[in-house]
Amino acid sequence: MLKKVGILANGGDVSGFNAVIRAIVKTAENHGVECYGIIDGYNGLLKKDFEILSTAAEGEAMGILPKGGSIIGSSTNANLFNYKVVNEDGSIEYKDMSDKAIENIKEFGFDCIFTLGGDGTQKSARDFSTKGVRVIGVPKTIDNDVACTEITFGYNTAVSVSMEALDRLHTTGETHHRIMVLEVMGRYAGWIALESAIAGGADIALIPEIPYDINRVAEKINNRRKRGKNFSVVVVAEGAKPKGGDITIIETRDNGTGVDNTKLGGVGQIIAQQLQEITGLEARNTTLGYMQRGGTPTAYDRVLSTKYGSKAMELALEGKFGTLVVIKNGKLDFVSLEDVVGNNKKIGAVSGNTEESNLRKVSMEDDLVKTARNIGINLGD
Q: Which CATH number covers residue 131?
């Protein structure tokens, strides 16, 4: 019998975190299970920072369905298997603190930990699972790149925000006869760029999976001019890269292995400058940035997040630990965390775009790619 469970949100914030938390808590309450929020992601496990969650009057989980962000915080750089520790003399070293976290879990009496997060979060969840912790993951990321599921919560809201930005840029570009570039998130997968380009009527979409030729992009713009269309709208994922080139990195952080230490950004401005030089049209770049992450979730994400949270608690009640809640063939399901990490089996190993990683990227056979090509969206190749 489950008596007490913990919920942690980890990685970059997304709209829908709170909806998942609420659904877990409400489902748990209906079965007499006590819920606690683990504050600031995996950091909270190490610091024993736990807060009771309830949907009763004045409870922390009451009225949070439409609220963006996470009421229990999050962390983007906490890999407890290789954790940054500052010693008394100011020196820094990286230590495996997972056993201390497990000790805290046992001491507090958690029967299950719910991990709300993306690739890195679920990699750590799998690693804790191999050490005997009862874990159930819920797939979160606006990039939509968690393996084994068709969609992650937070993604639909990000696409909707990007689409609205494209609608606004479209009118400015048409008025001033400019090339309008919109840089959106998407480190290693181009789902946001591709879907928002289709929804927002963009002319070009550049994604990480297809290295682009800037001259082919310029050719598309010039062909539009020949047909009397003196403006173009370009969507570019932050992880897009030119043929023979690499992603644009603006900063490399020192958070040790096991987390993604590269901060991307700037490719939109580069593309705008190049297109202006080649075509002679004025080009402007807008980097949407954290606008995609914040704010109230769409109706779709509210429903999806609620389904995910409810199903996660259901799996816990059934004793199906070491799993990730997924959408498979349009229906709620679950898979083993071992399947999610794929070949990335080493405890504490780096997450992200490595040969061992199991990210869900855009396939050239995907319907979105075929649709984009059919309606004339240039993909840079």
A: 3.40.50.450
